[in-house]
Amino acid sequence: MRPFLFLGTRAEDLVAEQEYDAMLAGTGLRPDELVRVRLEAGPLGDIDLDDWSGVILGGGPFNMSDPQELKSSVQRRVEAELHDLAERVVATDTPFLGACYGIGVLGTRAGGVVDRTYGEAIGALPVRLSADGLADPLFGELPEVFNAYLGHKEAVSQLPEGAVLLASTDTCPVHAFRLGRNVYATQFHPELDAAALCDRVDAYSAHGYYELHEQESLKTAAREAQVTEPVRLLARFVELYARA
């Protein structure tokens, strides 16, 4: 099998390792089958998409809607590299699954708008599949309504040209969409469990996702939530796209 490529952007080592471990567990792949590149640590380099079964992009603290003057040189480099990769992925319809940050990367191309209109607080919310989501080869494995962990400052307020809406919440109209047949973005985190979300609450306490007095209550709510279905997307992605 050709390996899958996993792209991370988290500078915090503990959270970066947890995210990668969760992706390995969810996909059922070994490290040599899900090869990681930490984009915050160095350039992406030359990527031949034919070498890979598909690409998975994790989340992180970067936001496309951050004011340009406040973006670090690392964030600007990562955005430029992912923009170029996304253009190639969409042009070739290469299997791609972008979790959370994928919304920013794919949602800003071809007339799409990503802004702060539909941000959602850290926690778990019901996600509802659209009719197209129910019929989709990847998302159709999930129930029509399922709980998912999320937490984001920005979201898609206008879909890119040609995008197919797959899922929404009551407070965010675009939680997943597809471009072409094989390119996907989700706003929620398919890899997260309660323990990992609690660690992210702690790791990103200074990033403006919540008020400090909310920290412990957010973690309590995360532990009490029943979130079981989103992780199935990872194994299904591998089932659909693993190739010799």
UniProtKB/TrEMBL annotation:
PROSITE patterns: GATASE_TYPE_1 (PS51273). It comes from the Bacteria. One of its GO terms (molecular function) is transferase activity. Keywords: Glutamine amidotransferase, Transferase. InterPro entries: ChyE-like, Class_I_gatase-like, GATASE. Pfam families: GATase. GO terms for cellular component: cytosol. The keyword Transferase applies. Gene3D superfamilies: 3.40.50.880. Residues 49-192 form the Glutamine amidotransferase domain. This is Glutamine amidotransferase. The keyword Cell division does not apply.
